[in-house]
Amino acid sequence: MFTKILLPIDHTDENSWKKALPTALEQAKFYGAELHAISVIPEIIQLPNLPAGYGSGAKDFVRDKIAAILSANNAADVPVHIEEGSVYRELLKFAHKEGVDLIVMASAEGDFPNYEIGPNLARVVRNAHCTVMVVRN
Amino acid sequence: MEALDNIVGAINGVVWGPLMLVLILGVGFFLQVGLKFMPILRLGTGFSLLFKGRSNQGEGQISPFNALMTSLSATIGTGNIAGVATAIFLGGPGALFWMWMTALVGMATKYAEAVLAVKYRETDELGNFVGGPMYYIKNGLASHWHWLGWAFALFGAIAAFGIGNGVQANGVAHVLEANFELNRSVTGVVLMVLTAAVILGGITRIGAVAGKLVPFMAISYIIAGLLVLLIHAGAIVETLELVFTYAFTPHAAQGGFAGAAVWAAIRFGVARGVFSNEAGLGSAPIAHAAASTKGPVNQGLVAMLGTFIDTIIVCSITGLAIIASGAWTSGESGAGLTSLAFETSLPGVGGYLIAISLSIFAFTTILGWSFYGEKCVGFFFGYRALMPYRILWIVMIYFGATADLGFIWLLADTLNAMMAIPNLIALALLSPIVFKLTREFFASNGATEEGESRPAE
Questions:
Q1: For chain B, percent of residues with pLDDT exceeding 70
Q2: Which residues pair with A132 in a beta bridge?
Q3: Interface of B with A in 5-44 (CB under 8 A)
Q4: Residue B231: its pLDDT value, please?
Q5: Is residue B456 over pLDDT 50?
Q6: DSSP per-residue letters across B212-226
Q7: Of B53, B242, B277, B456, which is least surrounded by CB within 10 A?
């Protein structure tokens, strides 16, 4: 039913992969689909007062962090994609461009009732062209 | 508005009182003595480091010329043009003397800031170097001092809107109105759009182009300033007499100049001096922490040059041009005064040169300070909290451009003092570390920092 699954991971938030990664792996195995991990980082602006190339290593840095998370959870062969910009916009863009048919995304750790669906997740759910699975913690 | 003016004025009176001046000059002097006047004596070492260039991660060497240009771009701004003019307008010729004093002790302050910034920097969630006063307080001082770091980051995030945003936008609006009769609101909107394109739209090309223009504008400005001084060469000795005399004696009203007490000369000289060279403010170390450098002392030696070039060279040119040309008794203030000094000496070119260079300096300063503000906000909330700050940053540009000149400078001064206080206390407390690193560096002829070259992530 699904052929390409996308799992957004925030390397600073354990919540984003702890339960969502095993879930996504299981889905991928069940459907024989390929699983892709993605992380969106803010754009690093080259300003005149900063050394040339400041922030040029950020993508690789985050890629390594995500790869470490994946291999620690028996998913070392999952390809990692790093995009820059607004989180939900880049996720949707990537999913559309790459023909993703299922997005697996963790809900946030909410302190208030009904606040587990953060602004990025809400926008992904609302605007995605494919199925979105929200993994509740 | 008047009530707000009074409130800010009252706070200003307290934070810019004698205590503050003692703190700025005192801490600087203490560091200068503790370093055995090394920053002044080793000025040549700093320049040679700059000219040797610094290796940059994977992209080979930055040429010495580029290194000098980058350093110039970061240092020269509205403070050198408009700031000096307001200092002389309010404090008289003697203010220039007190500006020099802030630079002489400020070289030690700036050196210490950069040394500590590199020594105690961290790697953020995206693998970039982050540092600055909040980090050297957090990583260098015992936990009961950590509130100083919080205070710095809080005031820094707010103060950025003054010195790095409102004053800059105001300066541009003022000078474009004076020279091209451009409506201030129009200037405000144009600046907002350009800034938004860079920090929200990611169109970094605009920032890069502006950054490339800065060194050329800086050099044109310095050459034009020297020409103005050359034209008034006969008045130079008299000008220097004025500067030294009225640094210690009150000046009576003369022409459009309202007169100034010695206290005003000190207060405005020091305030605008610090505004221009940023020594003690705590902003520059945030940028120095981002550098890929051999080590703390190497970065410190390059950093202290900034203060020297900024105040001893560029501010002096502006100040002497204003006094020597006689423009200072005209009743003009701010960029308008500098503009007048240049225009009367170099008719047809002077005013436009000031208008254009000020606009470019101010624009890159607005971009640069957005980084400082962001790092202060990031200290509290991490890298995900930057977007709202960037949006607020852009909105404030318009208010800065259309606000009253006097009020916006008053507000900026007040906020600057509030971020400088925690930083200066931290510098005094951490001074033994600075002295130790410096001693070891020079005792080993720089060998202490040869092995620890780390590429920036």
A1: 90
A2: A103
A3: none
A4: 92
A5: no
A6: HHHHHHHHHHHHHHH
A7: B53
Please compute, for residue A96, the number of CA atoms within 13 A of its CA located in the half-sphere on the CB side: 10
At B368, list the tokens.
């640069």
Give the separation between CA B197 and CA B206, rounded to whole angstroms.
8
In chain B, residues with a C-beta closer than 8 Å to the C-beta of A8 are none
Interface touch B387/A62, C-beta < 8 Å: no
Q: Residue B317 class from Cβ within 10 Å (0-12 exposed, 13-18 middle, 19+ buried)? A: buried
B102 contacts B277 by C-beta, under 8 angstroms? yes
Query: Which domains are delineated in chain A?
Result: 4-45+52-130 (3.40.50.620)
φ, ψ for residue B365, nearest 5 deg: -65, -40
B254 vs B313 pLDDT, higher one: B313
ipTM greater than cut 0.85: no
Q: At what angle do helices B236-245 and B94-119 cross, to 10 degrees?
A: 80
Looking at CA atoms only, how far is residue A49 from chain B in angstroms?
5
* HSE-up (13 A, CA, CB side) for residue B151: 18
Q: How far apart are CA B186 and CA B193, in angstroms?
A: 11
Return the half-sphere exposure (C-beta side, CA atoms, 13 A cut-off) of residue B283. 35
| Nearest to B78, CA basis, from B272, B305, B331, B329 | B272
Q: State whether residue A56 sits within 8 Å of chain B by CB.
A: yes
A62·B126 Cβ contact <8 A: yes
Whether B57 and chain A come into contact, CB under 8 Å, resolves to yes
Q: Number of helices and strands (H, E) in chain B?
A: 22, 4
Span B8-445 CATH architecture: Up-down Bundle (1.20)
Q: Are B313 and B226 in contact (CB under 8 A)?
A: no
Q: Which residues of A are less than 8 Å from B387 in CB distance?
A: 42, 86
* DSSP classification of residue B403: S
**pLDDT tens-digit profile of B26-76?**
999 999 999 988 888 888 887 777 666 554 433 334 455 555 666 666 667
